[in-house]
Amino acid sequence: MSAVLERPQSLLPSRFSWLMGLYSENYHRLARLFAPQDLAIGRYRSSLDDGLDVRLDVIERHRYTLDLHLTYCFVDRETGEHAPSAQLRMYHDAHMAEVLDCRADRRLIRAIGPLQPARSVFQRRVRMSSFLNRWLEYLAEQGHSIGTLEPTASGSAAGT
């Protein structure tokens, strides 16, 4: 009898496999969009003259990883922080991008409603990675790219 018939398996990936696929897709979207793996440590800005400039900070570079911060260049009036924003880690050897932390703007939360608390770490990772995936897709559709990315002086008014 064939091995296929002896061990029936689901055609759908496991939840963990699906999350790892999302990490991989985010890595490739980020690599195509801004090519941060080729950037020096520093702060970069992508401006399309629409008032929604994007800031990418290359924070730390290690042999197999790259730590990044991605945000818009405006501040949430209620929290005083840039939002939405995401702390990211790219794994070059595994070709994956993990969201370490993700923050939404209070106005966005009021507009779409609060997200229900995640029941598990896994569920939180899925939500953050799904958000990053949609955000990177949106940035690409708006025209942001490595071609619109320019270095800025850290700490200057232009870089905030």
Describe the structure.
The chain has four helices and six strands. The protein is globular and about 45 Å long. It starts with a helix and ends in an 8-residue tail after the last strand. α2 runs parallel beside α4 (121-142). β2 (54-61) and β3 (65-72) form a beta hairpin. The model is unreliable at 155-160 (pLDDT under 50). The protein has a six-stranded antiparallel β-sheet with strand order 5-4-3-2-1-6. The chain has 160 residues and is of the alpha+beta class.
What's the helical proportion of residues? 25-40%
Largest sheet: 6 strands, antiparallel
Order of helices and strands: HHEEEEEHHE
Mean pLDDT: 82
Number of strands: 6
What is the first-to-last residue Cα distance?
A: 65 Å
Shape summary: globular
Strand percentage, roughly? 25-35%
Spatial sequence of strands, sheet with the most strands: 5-4-3-2-1-6
Helix/sheet category: alpha+beta
Can you tell me the residue ranges where pLDDT is under 50 for at least 5 consecutive residues? 155-160
Rg calculated over all Cα atoms: 18 Å
Count of alpha and pi helical runs: 4
Using brief descriptors, characterize the structure shown.
single chain, 160 residues, alpha+beta, six-stranded antiparallel sheet, globular, disordered C terminus
Task: Briefly say what this structure is.
This protein has 160 residues and is of the alpha+beta class. It contains 4 helices and 6 strands. Helix 2 runs parallel beside helix 4.
